Amino acid sequence: MVSDNVSGQTVVDPKGYLTDLQSMIPQHGGDINDMKKARLLLKSVRETNPKHPPAWIASARLEEIGGKLQASLVVARNLIMKGCEECPKSEDLWLEASRLVPSDQARAVVAQAIRHLPQSVRLWAKAANLEVEVKAKKEVFKRALEQVPNSVTLWKLAVELEVSNFFP
After folding, report:
1. For the segment 1-57, what is each residue's pLDDT rounded down to a tens digit?
2. Fewest C-beta atoms under 10 Å: which of 106, 108, 121, 133?
3. Which UniProt key words apply to this protein (predicted)?
4. What single string gives the DSSP state of each residue in the chain?
5. Left if phi > 0, otherwise alpha if psi is -120 to 50, otherwise beta: which for 120?
């Protein structure tokens, strides 16, 4: 926090604050009290500013690394999906959600994300990557290029897919 000498108000750098919060998240096997403190801090950030995606991501990651087996993963998934509801235009939140959910649900999560962010190259690339069959991947790239026709990345990925199947 930085104090403003002119007005006497306190100004917070949100990126620096969240970076500090991220560094406070204990790594595997951290002290349980540190985990409790980090949970409280992140809960406070989420409640104060529910439209701030990094707070949701940090909260989900804390639960993912700090909990007890499957129960903590469920909490992490619930947090990240709540974050997606609060911030549906956050590409990073949706990508994190697709990573955290079970693989059989990831396609549905990415499809939902694309409905909110049809111009997101990263989400389209993730959608294609989640497809198993080449034909399905091609269809995803076709739809992606209809939405984002000037994306060099999407064109490159689509061409690479064609070349890899033409010259196996």
Report:
1. 444 444 555 555 666 656 665 565 555 555 677 888 999 999 999 999 999 999 999
2. 133
3. Repeat
4. -EE-TTT--EE--HHHHHHHHHHHS--TT--HHHHHHHHHHHHHHHHH-TT-HHHHHHHHHHHHHHS-HHHHHHHHHHHHHHHHHH-TT-HHHHHHHHHHS-HHHHHHHHHHHHHH-TT-HHHHHHHHHH--SHHHHHHHHHHHHHH-TT-HHHHHHHHHHHHHHH--
5. beta
Q: How far apart are alpha carbons 54 and 131 in whole angstroms?
A: 28
Distance CA 114, CA 3 (A): 41
Q: Is the dihedral of CA 7, 9, 10, 11 positive or negative?
A: negative
Annotated domain spans of the chain:
1-90
- Please give the Cα distance from 124 to 98 (Å, whole number): 12
User: Would you say 83 and 90 are in contact if contact means Cβ atoms under 8 Å apart?
Assistant: yes
